Amino acid sequence: MTRHLVIAIDGPSASGKGTLAKRLARHFGLPHLDTGLLYRAVGWISARSGRPPAEVAASLTADDLADPQLRSDEAGQEGSKVAALPEVRANLLKFQKEFSSQQPGAVLDGRDIGTVICPEAPVKLFVTASSEARAERRYRELRRQGVDTIKPRVLAEMAERDRRDSERAAAPLRAAPDAWLLDTSEMDADAAFAAALAFIERKGFRSSGP
Ligand code: CDP
C-alpha cells in the first residue's frame, strides 16, 4: 500500500520554497499548489475591482490564477495585505484542504501549510535563508524579468512583507513544531533539493517512478 504523501513547505519570500516544492512534486509525481498565488490573486483582483477581498476569495477560479502579473512584487504586497484577513483565509481553506487530500498525495507551499492547512502532513519543511541571501535572489530574479530596481529597495520591501506575515494574528508565518528546518543561505537549488530529498527518504518515502 502506498502511504499518502503530503509535503508541506513553508517559509518566507525568496527562501527557495517554491522551486523546491516544484522539484519535489516532479520527483514524486505529485500535484503541486503554490498557495501564495491564491492570496496574490485575491489581493490583485480586489484592488482592481473594488470587490471585498473575502468575496473574491470565496469565488476564486483557476482562470484567476493564470495572470502573469500575479508574479509581480506589487501583487505580492497586495496578497500579503489580504492574507491578514481571517475571512479571506477561511474562504480559501476548503480548496487547499481538498487539494491536499488527493491520492496519492500533494505538495503545497506557503506560510501556514504545516501549521493550519495540513497539520497532519507526514513531511513538513520550513525553508529559510538570511535576509541578504533572499534579497539578492529576488533582486536577480527581478532584473532577469527586466524590472528596474535597486537592492536596498528589494530588501526594504521584503522586510516589510516578512514583518506583516510574521506579526499578523491570523495564521502568522511560523515553523510547525515538527517541521524540519532547511537553511538555504549557502545552497543552490540543486543542493536544497538533495538535502530535502534525503530527509524525505529517511522518513521512508521513495518515488515510485522510473
Ligand atoms: O513567492 P513569495 O514567497 O514571495 O510569496 P507568495 O508565497 O506568493 O505569497 C504572497 C503572500 O501571500 C505572502 O506574503 C503571504 O502574506 C501570503 N500567504 C499566506 O498568508 N499564506 C500562504 N499559505 C501563502 C501565502
Reported for the largest beta sheet, the result is: 5 strands, parallel
Helix content: 40-55%
CATH superfamily: P-loop containing nucleotide triphosphate hydrolases
- Specify the CATH architecture: 3-Layer(aba) Sandwich
Strand arrangement in the largest pleated sheet:
2-3-1-4-5
User: What is the count of helical runs?
Assistant: 9
Q: So what's the overall shape?
A: globular
Mean pLDDT, all residues = 95
Order of helices and strands: EHEHHHHEHEHHEH
Q: What percentage of amino acids are in beta strands? A: 5-15%
Instruction: Tell me the Rg in angstroms.
Output: 17 Å
Structural class assignment? alpha/beta
Ligands in the model, by name, code or SMILES, are: cytidine-5'-diphosphate
Total separate domains = 1
CATH class: Alpha Beta
Instruction: Indicate the CATH topology.
Output: Rossmann fold
N/C terminus separation = 18 Å
